[in-house]
Each structure stands twice: as structure tokens, then as C-alpha cells.
């Protein structure tokens, strides 16, 4: 049997290696268009920033090591230019010229191509992408003589690149066409990331795109002009505005692709040709929560897809599970992570959901070094978990991993509440933040927790009695102009006053994080008030509504 793999790195090399482990006698040929068949593409920004100093550290395997350890015939700098499905051959062009190679099984792992905006100046030498080891080494070298940079696109790679350049001492402008950085995050979670970028000296520009790049009038660097007419001179421009499936080889051969060009495969990675499989960034996958199909360019799924393709070729594959899109990124001292469907994705798919925010500590508060983990989870009306996001300085990764596992298992609020997670004061709390999400949704299902959200604030300011149950000091530092301050531990003694001030209006309660206001809400609810608790408290309100005007000054306590 001859297996031909087109493209290396995560998907292709996983397929080739797994095929060898399953079949020692198979002839396995890997064609890689570039010079490096197996490299750590997720580590490229860290090479630019100096965390990974050696270029060689990014090279996981070479044709020689793969030949010695796995008996693979790996040919780099060799491009597959055409597939003849009827003859079961591929046309290849490389250092030895052009050749035609036959196959019994063909695995396509062409990856994705960096998208280049259709604006003037993208071909200037100061403009680069960050997709290969050579890109990273060239950018790292160019930084030595640079002072300023613009990064176009604030997705995962854009954020990591902006941090890398800032760590190297450059003044960095991060430009994102969407209204927020890291668009897959909910806006209130992305705001925390933006604040961290700004705190570390990154000039963040959202809601605008670059419209042109041109040589600077000074003769040094380039001028980046934005869609609003503003411009700035920089030494380096890094373009990171997304990728597109590199599927022309497949589509030219008549294989089915979707409207975005992603190769269509079944649950064993097989295309609509029974002898051709496809894996990695170039294929369409199905989201477990929304059912929407499309490319998901992540290393973890690509590795598993490669393994599955090899198993399918050998007749031992287990069907693929839909993807969750679990991802994580470091942004200076902050971590942002997500899994499953975001509220925006659920809205687009027409899926009804309930959102909960919590701001509990990453470990026991009495143990030194505790920090807040900002978690957001979306649940179906029956309590089934649909997605989660987290931002914080410590403990975000393990919470999102637990929640990703819970999503795969189909867990709901009751399951999250009952999860038995490792606890000791340096590591967690007896009631972990994941448990707390379960408790909160249980309360919603039970009817003991009614929420109001950022989209309800304007309505509440005009139609409700807003009760701020923080301390007088917190209230003084910033509050809604319409709010009356009665600390949560004084609610019981002020019930008649609250009834008088509410004057028949609904009562909308909030505190800093949502816990003290929940206690107040329970009292008010049981006293017959139409009460609701703000989801996530003032912490969430301010990040969800960054333009919200708060007033400061001495608290006007209702008893005064």
C-alpha cells in the first residue's frame, strides 16, 4: 500500500506517523511545499518576542529524523500541483523537477493561507505575515532596528504578535476592524483583554481597518492609513487578519468544498472521493453546539484529524466528534480562553440561552496570591451547558478545560454543581468557580434567581428602582446616577423604605460581583418585590458598557 500525504505540520504528520504505527509495511510519502515539514507554528510569536530564542527549537522533526524513526519518505520544498483522481496519481514539482506519483490512499493537509486585505501597499517589504519559521526569524531580525509597529488584526495571533513586539521594546498599534479585540470573546470579556493591552502600552484601535499602506514621506518605514483617514508612520506592519482554507488543489480536482472553500469530509475525514482524505485547517468541521460547519484552524483538532484519517485508511477509525473550538491565549499577564458556543454564536444560530457571569477567586481567599477568575457560561433553558469563556491572571486554563470536558460529556447545571474538583487552599476553593456556575444556573431553574443584564440597563434606569447594595465607600467611588445605596446587610431593616422608594416599580439590584446583590435579591423576592439581580455585578456592567457614565461622591444612604 502506498499512502501519499500532501502537507506536513500538525495534520499531515499526525496522519503519516499514525499510519506507520498501524502498518509497518506501508510505503508512506510526505510532500511538503515549504522547507520545514514539522514545526511549532503556535510558537512563532514567542520566537519573535525572544521567549523561544533558537530557531531550531521550533523545528520538531526533519526529513532525516522522520526517516530514521518512522521510515517515512519526506520530501520538502516539493509541491503537489494536481490530482488525477481517475488514475490515482499526483503531479509534484520539486528540486528534482516534475514527477507523477501514484497512490492507494491520499491525505490532503494543505493548511490555510494568510488572508491579505485588498488594499494598496501589501507588497511592500515592511509588510509581513507570521505563518512560517522563516517569517518568524525574519521578523525577529527586523525588530532589531525598528522602533514602531502596526499589527493588523486582534485575533489570537495578532494579540500574541503585539505582545511579542511590545516585549522587544517597540511602540505597537493594534488595529482591529471589529468593535472589540479578540472577536470570538463576548464583548464584556474582550474588554478585560483590551484593558490589559492598554496597561502594557499597546495602542488599541477598534472599529477601524487599514485602508492603505504606503512608503513614508520621511523615507523611513511606511505610513498606515485607517478607514477614518487617520494615519501613522511605522517601521513594521504585521498582517494577521485571518486565514482562508488552502483548498485549491482539492477544488481543482473536483472534490466538494463549502462556500468558504473548506474541503467537505465525513466523520472519518474522507472526502467525496473514497480514496482521498483531508485534515487540518483546510477542512470544514461541525460545531457540537450550533451544528454550524466551517473551518476551525486549531492545532488540537488537526492532530486528531490526522490520526483519524490514518485509522480510516487502515479500517479501524472511530467516527469524529463535533468540535468545540476550545482555545486559549496569553496576553501579557492575562489569560483568555473559551470553549463551546459564545452568546453571539447562539444568537446567530437561533438557540435560546441563559448567560451567567461569576468573578470568584482562583483559590481560597485567605491563602496569599488569590486573584479573580472572570467566567461566563451560557446554558440552555433546561440547564445544559452550551459554552464558556474565562479571563484572569491565574486558574483560567484549568476551569476552561473542566468546562470543555463538561461540554463534551453533555453536562448541565446539576453536573457542574456536583463536580468533585481538586481542592487545597493554594489550588482552589471548596466551592470552585465551576461549581458556582452550576449553582447559579440551578438557582435560575429553581426560580430563586432572576437576572437583569447589560442590555436591560437603559430600561431599568427609566422604569425601575435601582438598588446598589455595595458598601458606602464603593458607592462613592462610582455609581449609576439613579441608584440608591443601601448595603446588603441593611436590607432587612429598610424594607419599608425600599417599598416607599420603589413606589410600585420593579427593583433592580446590583453589587460589585453579583453575590451580595443575590443575598439582597433573595430577601426582596421573598418579601413580594419584583426583584432581579444584575448578572456579574458592577464588574460585568462596566466591561459590557464601557461608555457608561457613573457619578462619584458621598453616598446618599436612604436613611440619611
UniProtKB/TrEMBL annotation:
PROSITE patterns: RHODANESE_3
Any coiled-coil regions, as ranges: none
Lineage, highest ranks first: Bacteria, Bacillati, Actinomycetota, Actinomycetes, Micrococcales
The organism's place on the tree of life at top rank: Bacteria
UniProt domain Rhodanese: residue ranges: 460-550
Record's protein name: FAD-dependent oxidoreductase
Record-linked PANTHER family: NAD(P)H SULFUR OXIDOREDUCTASE (COA-DEPENDENT), PYRIDINE NUCLEOTIDE-DISULFIDE OXIDOREDUCTASE DOMAIN-CONTAINING
Record keywords, A-Z: FAD, Flavoprotein, Oxidoreductase, Redox-active center
UniProt keyword annotation of 4Fe-4S present: no
Cofactor(s) it depends on: FAD
